[in-house]
Specification:
Oligomer: heterotrimer
Distance between the termini of chain C: 47 Å
Strand content of chain B: 15-25%
Number of domains of chain B: 1
Largest sheet of chain C: none
Radius of gyration of chain C: 15 Å
Largest sheet of chain B: 3 strands, antiparallel
Strand content of chain C: under 5%
Shape of chain B: globular
Number of strands of chain C: 0
Helix content of chain B: 40-55%
Number of strands of chain B: 3
Number of helices of chain C: 3
Number of domains of chain C: 1
Helix content of chain C: over 70%
Order of helices and strands of chain B: HEHEEHH
Order of helices and strands of chain C: HHH
Largest interface: A-C, 56 and 52 residues
Chain lengths: 112, 126, 86
Amino acid sequence: MSAVLTVITGVLCIGGAIFVLLSAIAMLRSRDGLSRINVLSGATGMGLPWIATGVYIEHVQTHGFDVVTLLKLLVAIAGFVIMSSVASNALGRAAYRSGAPLDPATEPNELA
Amino acid sequence: MIPNPLRVGVYGAWLAGEVIRGALRIGADVVTPGLRMSPAIVALPLHCETDLEISTMASSITITPGTITLGIAPRTGDSPPTLYVHALYGADREEVITELRDMERRLLVMTRGRQAGERSMQEEPS
Amino acid sequence: MTVIVWITVAILLLAAVLGLVRVLLSRDDASVAAVSDLVYFCAVGIFLMVGLAAESIVLLDVASLAALIGILATVSLARILTRGRR
């Protein structure tokens, strides 16, 4: 049982880190600021929640289960998803309004 | 008005699948040579009515890798509430709109129930 | 367990370094804001993993607080981008 849980923890933690890494590579290769804000949601929407879940499983294994910790995990996951998407909305709007250079291939642009 | 928790769970699971799919799509593009990204900004008139529906839709679009909401135009006169969406793979405008419409249909099914949600998607937003 | 922790930390560090390379290559303001978000989340992930190795018990408190507070930095960066206008 313990070995299975450790494997699940490993998959969640390393998988989550790989989502963050994919976001970073996409950020490195994409051509304008808006695209970089765009690809960030892969890291915050999947990467960090997976790592938090892996940490929770390991925590249950060493310290035992209790409801408060589960609640903290749910708050953390909901926080990562909701807060990061609201923040990205604000950041994307600000980036567009501040006249950040757009990829010239942006076509169609219905907000112009 | 609190949506049915079961429907919230169904929508959340579907959204999680979309996030994984979008992240893997972008990942597969950037780790292979050559870049297929061609960004686009499209206007999306909404069927959503309440503030909760509009802001949930905007957040769902943003949390999916590959699409992000740049601005929300509230209802003014005859024009429906409109979202301006930056899509990373926007070469085909119709495809982007179709995927966003599918997300909106699922969202309205969550907030209004299956029949009312499907019915409000039938007509053009106004 | 230790192996998992260090592999994850290495991947997250690599992600943060890639983000910093991006800032060095091109420094338009929107990219810098996006990279600062990425580095913040990498730091949270690294903290969680190192705490896991040290068997700390406050990890999930840290995770939930980091998730709830992270919006402040991003929103203030958004205000800086627009030079204080909304």
